[in-house]
Amino acid sequence: MTEKTVIITGCTSGIGRETARELVRKGCRVIMACRNLELAEALR
């Protein structure tokens, strides 16, 4: 899945968080749409 770009909402917890992590591991470029910037920064 390299060279794919995905936008994920709800990345700071739950299914959104795990989905984002897995897609990054698979080589995707992940754009996180989050309400809580502090939690989002912690995921980087």
Secondary structure: elements and pairs:
Elements: E1 5-9, H1 14-25, E2 29-33, H2 37-43
Parallel strand pairs: 1-2
Please, could you describe this protein's structure?
This protein has 44 residues and is α+β, with helices and mostly antiparallel strands. The longest helix has 12 residues, at 14-25. A two-stranded parallel ribbon has the order 1-2. The mean pLDDT is 91. The protein is elongated. The protein has one domain (5-43). The protein is built from two helices and two strands. Keywords: Oxidoreductase. GO terms for molecular function: oxidoreductase activity. InterPro entries: NAD(P)-bd_dom_sf (IPR036291), SDR_fam (IPR002347).
Main traits of this protein?
elongated, two-stranded parallel ribbon, 43% helix, 44 residues, single chain, alpha+beta, 2 strands
What is the structure about, briefly put?
By secondary structure, the chain is of the alpha+beta class. It has one domain. Helices cover 43% and strands 23% of the residues.
